[in-house]
Amino acid sequence: MALGVRGFKAAFMAALLAGTAFMATPAEAAGKLTISSPQDPGSWDPIDTFLVNWASVGTNIFDGLTYRGPDRKLVPGLAESWTEMDGGKRIRFKLRSGVTFHNGEPFNAAAVKFTFDRLLGEEGAKGPQRSNYTAIDSVEVIDDTTVDLKLKAPDPVLLTKLAGYGAMIVPPNYIKEKGDAFFNVNPVGTGPFKFVSYAPKTGIRLEANPNYWGGAPKLSEVEYRFITEPATAVAELQAGRVDVVLPPTIPIGMVPVIQADPKLTLLSVPGPTVDALRFNTKSGITADPRVRKALTMAVDRAAIVSSILAGQASQIASFQGELSFGYDPALKPLPYDPKGAQALLAQAGVKPGATVQIDIRGNDATMNEVAQAVAAYLGAVGVVATIKPYETNVLLNDVIPQGKTGAMFQQKWGGWTFDYDNTAYAMYHSGEKWNPYEQDPDLDKLLESQRAITDGTERERILKQIAHTVADKALEMPLYNSNAIYGVAKRVKNFPPASDNRPKLTEVTVD
């Protein structure tokens, strides 16, 4: 997301790089994989982003202390092992020895300390990742290959959080020497692929790291092209100029096109990504919870899933899917009930012809269709809805965080930890970036309380309570939990269709 948070640094370097970034000599074509990604995150610094499209690339540049693959099992990463101590308030990590960053700098306990001191310090405060790791009080270096994370309170999700995003380990000397602005657009990690070049809004190129601790990749080069238009991405896939199209690019309407092409394969797997239309609960007609419930009841979400999404998703009652820890199957969506919706609107004093604006990501073709269907359903109960598309980075970095949305706005969330906390805290806790309108001290207490509980059963109970509370308040219109849909050329072998859109490419080959 960096252009919104730290764009002044990225823009400066981008101007320098734009004319020369793709001058590097390409590797052998037989070893090259070209991937279409729908969004340029604007910065490759792990602490600058929440975007899954950052993670699709970042997973191959950086490593965390832990790693979670497509099977969703947590395994050692840069840490060979770990031990919980002091009742869960200290975690001791035994680090891999002999690992180096791409610039030759050694990976050690000092690098781990630098990474988390930076994440939790002034630099991290400029980005969106810090709040995920605030359970960490301090980092203590025991020796070069041993480091302790001292926690303010136990965090049952921390080990999973260490496998992605802000917790990716970064090189201290490189950042100190080059500066944060340079690091934004010239990333260095310990991962299986090394940064080669970056052209803003165009693409990023990586090359194999032959000294990768997990084994050298079988590909020699990976190029990510930022193609915002879904139709263009699919056309490039069909033409053979792109080998993989990442989620959430492929519109449902184009699924049959890929399935019918003998050169292509469609890979669809259940994922954590959920979509909702959230409400402005502070002003306008949606400040009234009766109106929010009425608008939700006016929309046949099940019909949208079956028709527009062609079964490549499932309806949700809360902002999480069935794979999420904290999911409650007993919580049912509000029923589709147009007459009941009209009655609630009348109770709230909303007269026929009232208007609402629905803000969406302009390049999300599927959501554009969904929003049109929602607008039609709302029109049937007397509410006139207009749809306003935004460039994705503008919507995410300016409009939503600044509380400048219409009455309803699209929220797509990766939920990559498969734990409701990762979603709920960011969406509903007062003061969080993705919660520009709602302030509820009781909900805040629930969200805070579950973070310190190590008893899984009790914590799950509280997470379910949070979901019910949010549903009662109707803070959003829950829509659906999408499958992660990949379009892949058949010449690509061993591609892992990761449900969290973080495929690690070490075993991938191309014919």
TrEMBL record:
One GO BP annotation of this record: peptide transport
- Protein location: Periplasm
Boundaries of every Solute-binding protein family domain copy: 73-433
- Pfam family of the protein (one): SBP_bac_5
User: CDD domains, per this entry?
Assistant: PBP2_NikA_DppA_OppA_like
According to UniProt, the name of this protein is ABC transporter substrate-binding protein
Keyword Ribonucleoprotein listed: no
Molecular function GO terms recorded: peptide transmembrane transporter activity
Q: Signal peptide position in this chain?
A: 1-29
Supply the alphabetized keyword list: Signal
Look up keyword Signal and say if it applies.
yes
Give the species this sequence originates from. Answer: Azospirillum lipoferum
Predominant location category: periplasm
Tell me the protein family, please: Belongs to the bacterial solute-binding protein 5 family.
GO annotations of cellular component type: ATP-binding cassette (ABC) transporter complex; outer membrane-bounded periplasmic space
